[in-house]
UniProtKB/TrEMBL annotation:
<dbReference type="InterPro" id="IPR014710">
    <property type="entry name" value="RmlC-like_jellyroll"/>
</dbReference>
<comment type="similarity">
    <text>Belongs to the pirin family.</text>
</comment>
<keyword id="KW-0408">Iron</keyword>
<feature type="binding site">
    <location>
        <position position="100"/>
    </location>
    <ligand>
        <name>Fe cation</name>
    </ligand>
</feature>
<feature type="binding site">
    <location>
        <position position="98"/>
    </location>
    <ligand>
        <name>Fe cation</name>
    </ligand>
</feature>
<keyword id="KW-0479">Metal-binding</keyword>
<protein>
    <submittedName>
        <fullName>Pirin</fullName>
    </submittedName>
</protein>
<dbReference type="InterPro" id="IPR003829">
    <property type="entry name" value="Pirin_N_dom"/>
</dbReference>
<dbReference type="InterPro" id="IPR011051">
    <property type="entry name" value="RmlC_Cupin_sf"/>
</dbReference>
<feature type="binding site">
    <location>
        <position position="56"/>
    </location>
    <ligand>
        <name>Fe cation</name>
    </ligand>
</feature>
<feature type="domain" description="Pirin C-terminal">
    <location>
        <begin position="178"/>
        <end position="266"/>
    </location>
</feature>
<dbReference type="GO" id="GO:0046872">
    <property type="term" value="F:metal ion binding"/>
</dbReference>
<dbReference type="Pfam" id="PF05726">
    <property type="entry name" value="Pirin_C"/>
</dbReference>
<feature type="binding site">
    <location>
        <position position="54"/>
    </location>
    <ligand>
        <name>Fe cation</name>
    </ligand>
</feature>
<feature type="domain" description="Pirin N-terminal">
    <location>
        <begin position="22"/>
        <end position="117"/>
    </location>
</feature>
<dbReference type="InterPro" id="IPR008778">
    <property type="entry name" value="Pirin_C_dom"/>
</dbReference>
<dbReference type="Pfam" id="PF02678">
    <property type="entry name" value="Pirin"/>
</dbReference>
């Protein structure tokens, strides 16, 4: 597949009272980069993050704040205040629920990234898990540095659990031209987090994402000012995914069953302490049969 630029669309997070996020993945005709199936960039914003308990299936949530603090609670009993430079990784397996609320200094703007990784068939029905990683490896090159969220970059390996060959890293790039190593068998994408960037000669605007097809061993980046970028990638994910609301499955029935279980208060999703009976209700299913998202952009 050839390289292409993906724009972002604005979406309210957790309802109309919450943050507005800029979503670059999934898009119509372009559902995944490796196993990454969802990329939200939120802030900088003075609006609070207010996300009541809600469910997930078939995925991992990856939460990476750049500014501000987030309290995570989940149905496993986890309660963590997540700060910049720390990673939360929640594996839903067959079902989990969680909430996320901004805390700390209200004058500090919320800014960060939330991503999903699709679980492969042999892991998507497994048990739910939660990991908090306060210290992650950092690798440096000429004109750049990378904090490794998942996977490996230039020999530095994250301790976070993965189920497919994958990489995710926050990159800091200094002014000028730099070259960053890539894994040849992976496809990759680079998100312009806080300013524009030139990726192999293509100008990418703030909040846009540049997709890079497999076969590369490096990528050339150029910025005017020191800039934060997100690098994601992995082996092309060849399993068909049905994605709807907060669920990732393989069929319409997977999604319908998960929705019914959530609405019924099933033990499948447990209970998140600290919110009483408040949860985010599932929206109605569409009047058509849900079908797998397939890549049609070439």
């Amino acid at each position: 597949m050839t390289d292409l630029t993906l724009g972002a669309r604005e979406v309210p997070l957790g309802g109309l009272r919450g943050l507005t996020v800029h979503r670059t993945l999934p898009q119509r005709g372009f559902p995944t980069v490796g196993a990454w199936c969802f990329v939200d960039h939120f802030g900088p914003s003075s609006d609070p993050m207010i996300v009541l308990p809600h469910p997930h299936t078939g995925l991992q949530t990856v939460t990476w704040p750049l500014a501000g603090e987030i309290r995570h609670r989940d149905s496993l009993g986890s309660e963590v205040v997540l700060r910049p430079g720390e990673l939360n990784l929640m594996t839903s397996g067959d079902g989990v629920s969680h909430s996320e609320f901004s805390v700390g200094d209200p004058d500090v703007p919320m800014h960060g990234l939330q991503l999903w990784v699709a679980l492969p068939a042999d892991a998507r029905r497994g048990p739910a898990e939660f990991e908090h990683h306060p210290d992650l490896p950092v690798v440096t090159g000429e004109g750049w540095s990378a904090t490794i969220l998942l996977g490996e970059v230039a020999g530095a390996v994250s301790p976070a659990t993965t189920y497919t060959p994958i990489v995710g890293a926050e990159m800091r790039v200094r002014p000028g031209f730099v070259q960053v190593p890539l894994r040849e068998g992976f496809e990759h994408a680079i998100l312009a987090v806080d300013g524009p960037v030139t990726v192999d000669g293509e100008d990418i605007a703030h909040r846009e994402m540049r997709y890079l097809g497999p076969g590369r061993t490096e990528v050339g980046l150029q910025v005017r000012d020191e800039t934060t970028l997100l690098l994601i990638g992995g082996e092309p994910f060849d399993e068909e995914l049905v994605m709807w609301w907060n669920f990732v499955g393989r069929s319409h029935e997977d999604i319908a069953d998960a929705r019914a279980d959530w609405e019924a208060g099933s033990a499948r999703f447990g209970h998140v302490d600290g919110h009483g009976t408040q949860v985010i209700p599932a929206p109605p299913l569409p009047d058509v049969r849900l079908s797998p998202r397939r890549r049609s952009v070439t």
